[in-house]
Amino acid sequence: MAKTQKEYLKHTYVVILCGGGGTRLWPRSRKKTPKQFINFFSEKTLYQDAIRLAKKVAPIKKIFIITNKDYVDDIKKESPEVLKENIIAEPMKKNTALAMGVAAAYVYKKDPKAVIINFASDHTVEDLKTAVKTVFGAAKIAFEKDILVSVGIKPTFAHTGYGYIHAGKILQRISGLPVFKVLEFKEKPDFKTAKKFLAIGEYYWNANWYTWSAKAILKAFEKHSPGLYENIGRILKSIGTKKEKAVLEREYKKAKEDQIDTAISEKAKNLVVIPGKFGWNDVGSWNVVWDLAKKNGNENVIIQSSRVKKKQEVLVHDSSNCLVHYDDQLVALVGVENLVVVDTKDALLVCKKDRAQEVKKIVNELKEKRKREYL
Questions:
Q1: Which of 218, 215, 214, 213 shows the shortest CA–CA distance to 231?
Q2: Strand residue runs (E) in the chain
Q3: Pair type for strands 115-120 and 211-213
């Protein structure tokens, strides 16, 4: 037992996915400065919090970042300790399936026995100790068996933006946590279906915290997504050669765009789920930011961007349940409630907090009107 434990820790790696856009957090989150590089809850950005979690799981030399090529400089600035060769720069966005497959190829090249814990750069965790215990349990069974391990979050409402995992019988326990066989994986159901899942009580939200051995996930691509497997295979062969960058660009252009959930999770028969009870949240909209942030006496959340040097205040009179995210200008609220106010240098957002999900409609309209300077 001790030997097995020592072995899986020796081969445990972390991959942080850091290529998302965060359109529902416009106008703060843009293509040039996506949400993972923004501070919402402290002076630290979401990405820096992800690095902090990763360092509790693996030494820095075993932490890989897969990101858009445009964000490499941000990665180096925010986490200078990450090894340069461990930053994988995607030439273009092709969604999570290719990103996770390519990251697995880079880790496999370094260690064919590797077990990979995948974290997102835009999630928050309240209980780090329990989160680490959970992923270590996942890593141990992924190292020992040919299985793909997901972390599931018990739903609190009928969310239509997450994938749902139907948990079956308990296969075993690891570190005191049950390991369920996955009966079904349903990606982003409609409201009626999500409400049904909530009532049944056997479904979990997919946190996208997948853990698998590099060998197992590459095998899964070969079986369930052969086209992507061929792209990943050619990239794997090029790693460390003079052709690496050229092959990466060529294969990304040729590859199909797909999510890991539809490419692998919905098809895999060797998928299991471990419940995650550590205060997990996906920071996907401004109302979520308000929910998670520290509030003052009137339930207002006031956050100044860490990217500005000049300190400025927000004046609030007879206002409650509001969120203000601002730069270095004076903001004043009078007699309002349940509002989101996001003030940047070139754009101002004011919306009702309970309609924050609709911010994406503004982003889509800006795209249609080709107002790229605001995206």
A1: 218
A2: 12-18, 63-68, 87-90, 115-120, 123-125, 148-153, 164-174, 177-186, 203-206, 211-213, 271-275, 280-282, 301-304, 314-317, 323-326, 331-334, 339-343, 348-352
A3: antiparallel
Determine the topology of domain 2-282 in CATH. Answer: Spore Coat Polysaccharide Biosynthesis Protein SpsA; Chain A (3.90.550)
Taking only the tens place, the pLDDT of each residue in 203-235 is 999 999 999 999 999 999 999 999 999 999 999
Tokens of 372: 């790229």
Mean pLDDT over the full length of the chain: 93
CB 254 within 8 A of CB 98: no
Closest CA to 128 of 203, 181, 52, 67: 52
C-alpha to C-alpha distance for 264 and 97, rounded to whole angstroms: 8
Asked whether the predicted pLDDT for residue 64 surpasses 90, the reply is: yes
| Domain range list for the chain | 2-282, 286-374
Amino acid 221 reads F
Give the pLDDT of residue 99. 97
Backbone angles phi, psi at 297, to 5 degrees: -60, -30
Burial, 328: exposed, middle or buried (Cβ in 10 Å; 0-12, 13-18, 19+)?
Answer: middle
Give pLDDT tens digits for 245-283: 999 999 999 999 999 999 999 999 999 999 999 999 999
339-343 and 348-352 as β-strands: parallel, antiparallel, unpaired?
antiparallel
Q: What are the Cα distances from residue 186, in Å, to 179, 198, 296?
A: 19, 13, 39
Say which residues have a Cβ less than 8 Å from residue 108's Cβ, sequence separation at least 6. Answer: 114, 214, 215, 218, 236
Confidence of residue 364 (pLDDT cuts 50, 70, 90): very high
Torsion of CA 369, 372, 373, 375, to 10 degrees: 100
Residue 171 reports pLDDT greater than 80: yes
Sorted by sequence, the CB contacts under 8 Å of residue 73 that are 6+ apart come out as none
pLDDT at 1: 42
Reading the block at residue 38, the tokens are 């923004």
CA atoms within a 13 Å half-sphere pointing along the CA-CB vector of 85: 10
What angle (nearest 5°) sits at the alpha carbon of residue 226, between those of residues 221 and 232?
A: 65
Rounded to two decimals, the pTM is: 0.91
Alpha-carbon distance of 105 to 112, in angstroms, equals 9
